[in-house]
Amino acid sequence: MGDDVNVLMSNSSKGTKDKHADDRALWLTLSNGNSLAFSSLYNRYANPLFNYGMHICYNRELVKDCIQELFAWLWKKRHELSPVDSVKYYLFKSFRNILIKAINQSKKFTEEPDEQHFLTQELSKEEEIIALDKENYHKEKVTKALGRISKRQREIVILRFFNEMSYAEISSLMGISTASAHNLLSKALQAMKVII
Amino acid sequence: MNYHHPDYSDFSIEDYLVDPFFKEWVLYSTPEHDEFWMRWIKAHPEKSALLEEARSLVLSLENSKEEMSPEELKDVWSLIQEDVNMPPKSLETYRSKKYRWAVAAGVSSVLAVATLVYLLLLPKEIEFVTGFGETLEITLPDSSTVKLNSNSKLTYLDNWEGQTAREIEIEGEAFFNVVHKVDHQPFRVLSSQNVTIEVLGTEFNVYNRAEETEVILNSGMVTLSFPVKEKEGKIVMNPGDLVKFKDNKFKRERVNTSLHTSWKDNVLNLEQTSLAEMVKMARDNYGVTIDVENKEALELTASGSMPLTDSDSFLRQIALIFNVELTKENNKYLIK
């Protein structure tokens, strides 16, 4: 009577740990080829990932394409999935890679390399992204506090507050030290408080 | 219910913003939340400015949230399905094939016969109904079992082979023990408030009466989806969870599941159960109306357990346990 599932769930405790245990149960069932577990993961994470993506690059279609790519890839390599501590972290990390690649590609196609391009070559990837869609973002969200803070500040706010990630996860996701993560977030909060 | 509050008095603004209980209060305030925070502010007046700041930050963050519409979610999902070449999921794909006109008469009569056979083989609807004071044990085609409580109805289409899911509709109350299938065919229970319960092998109780759906999970794993403000909400339930869906709102509680599911063993377990709840049970399960004259008596509670048989014994035991006088007037019962 569904023993496999019962065993998985029996050691789950309260609070956020529960969510991770659920996730891991879904992950394991997915790796056995269960399509219901697959759709549950999609239902659970499509919108959080979308929200995250939209705050990195304000381009609805591009972000949706990346979600599609992520999940298609996940299903194709379901049998190779090894257990992970945090399914959420794994998904966000993979999604971020896909998104950044897509942003860089769309840049190549849409923009002729001009002087400015060469000037900005020294910039980090994230800063490139900022330059790409800053204008769009501000047009749409100018009244909202998140629209007034920097791209990286926005990203950390999304990870921390909508997705309850730990500083360790955030720092490895964004490729910064935990100390700078703390610093970045407190600056973001400070800035948002002023705006509100 | 078992939620243990952290010490909010030395919280920084960031701590508030990640605290689930605080966020719930700001975003989906319930009386329970209000009561707690009102009391807390009274006890910590020096924190009220900080709290207010945290509150407006949470609101502003929520306001910046980007979401896909249900259509977009569905579209992206079907694109994913296309990408991974999953087998087509619905019967419609077989039927949507168009036959050409230029078919010889002989062939079309074969087709007609085939259609007839197909219609005869079409799954038929199966229905189980219980009257007041009756319960029924049902074994489903996949050998999952259901115990149907009084005054309830369960329907499904026979022949689940080759279907995308095993689907069941329920009105009233039922306890399910679902068998997990090797091919992972999902098991879905639909309630009348459009709440869908999706199951991966499990034991759970569904209560769906009078604009209210309540699901209690004993073991295993279940996801609930329900309509909220033109969107679809989803909850993954853990064993021991009770999720109530009423007036387009849901509420999750941690409960002692045996209190809610003991009826399946013809026993009613009470733990601080109020007279009001018993009155509701008498109506739901035995079709008996009880008027309570003194409204304060509704708040009386009792603990213990009692056997469940017929309505007479149920009423007698109520009178006994709650120490009230029960009289019959016309077709109604009255507690004074």
UniProtKB/TrEMBL annotation, chain A:
<dbReference type="Pfam" id="PF04542">
    <property type="entry name" value="Sigma70_r2"/>
</dbReference>
<dbReference type="GO" id="GO:0016987">
    <property type="term" value="F:sigma factor activity"/>
</dbReference>
<dbReference type="InterPro" id="IPR014284">
    <property type="entry name" value="RNA_pol_sigma-70_dom"/>
</dbReference>
<feature type="domain" description="RNA polymerase sigma factor 70 region 4 type 2">
    <location>
        <begin position="140"/>
        <end position="192"/>
    </location>
</feature>
<dbReference type="Pfam" id="PF08281">
    <property type="entry name" value="Sigma70_r4_2"/>
</dbReference>
<keyword id="KW-0804">Transcription</keyword>
<dbReference type="GO" id="GO:0003677">
    <property type="term" value="F:DNA binding"/>
</dbReference>
<comment type="similarity">
    <text>Belongs to the sigma-70 factor family. ECF subfamily.</text>
</comment>
<dbReference type="InterPro" id="IPR039425">
    <property type="entry name" value="RNA_pol_sigma-70-like"/>
</dbReference>
<dbReference type="InterPro" id="IPR013249">
    <property type="entry name" value="RNA_pol_sigma70_r4_t2"/>
</dbReference>
<keyword id="KW-0731">Sigma factor</keyword>
<dbReference type="InterPro" id="IPR013324">
    <property type="entry name" value="RNA_pol_sigma_r3/r4-like"/>
</dbReference>
<protein>
    <submittedName>
        <fullName>RNA polymerase sigma factor, sigma-70 family</fullName>
    </submittedName>
</protein>
<keyword id="KW-0805">Transcription regulation</keyword>
<dbReference type="InterPro" id="IPR013325">
    <property type="entry name" value="RNA_pol_sigma_r2"/>
</dbReference>
<dbReference type="GO" id="GO:0006352">
    <property type="term" value="P:DNA-templated transcription initiation"/>
</dbReference>
<feature type="domain" description="RNA polymerase sigma-70 region 2">
    <location>
        <begin position="41"/>
        <end position="107"/>
    </location>
</feature>
<dbReference type="InterPro" id="IPR007627">
    <property type="entry name" value="RNA_pol_sigma70_r2"/>
</dbReference>
<dbReference type="InterPro" id="IPR036388">
    <property type="entry name" value="WH-like_DNA-bd_sf"/>
</dbReference>
TrEMBL record, chain B:
<dbReference type="Pfam" id="PF04773">
    <property type="entry name" value="FecR"/>
</dbReference>
<keyword id="KW-0472">Membrane</keyword>
<protein>
    <submittedName>
        <fullName>Ferric-dicitrate binding protein FerR, regulates iron transport through sigma-19</fullName>
    </submittedName>
</protein>
<dbReference type="GO" id="GO:0016989">
    <property type="term" value="F:sigma factor antagonist activity"/>
</dbReference>
<dbReference type="InterPro" id="IPR012373">
    <property type="entry name" value="Ferrdict_sens_TM"/>
</dbReference>
<dbReference type="InterPro" id="IPR006860">
    <property type="entry name" value="FecR"/>
</dbReference>
<feature type="domain" description="FecR protein">
    <location>
        <begin position="129"/>
        <end position="222"/>
    </location>
</feature>
<feature type="transmembrane region" description="Helical">
    <location>
        <begin position="99"/>
        <end position="121"/>
    </location>
</feature>
<keyword id="KW-0812">Transmembrane</keyword>
<keyword id="KW-1133">Transmembrane helix</keyword>
